[in-house]
Amino acid sequence: MGTASGTPAGFDFDYSSTENLEADSYNFALRDSITGDLNFLTATAVDDGEFELNGDGIAVTTTTDLLSSTTEELTLLGETAEAIDLFDLANPSGDFTLQLDATLFREAAFDNQVGFYLANRAGSVLDPLTGEEVATLEGDRSTYLDAVVNNNLFSGQIANNNSGGLDTSEATISGNIDFNDAVLLPFLVRNGTLSDVASNFNNLYVAPASLNADNGTDHIRLLGGNTFGFEDQRNAGDSDFDDVVVVINNLNIV
Question: What's the mean pLDDT when you consider all of the chain?
Answer without folding.
Answer: 88
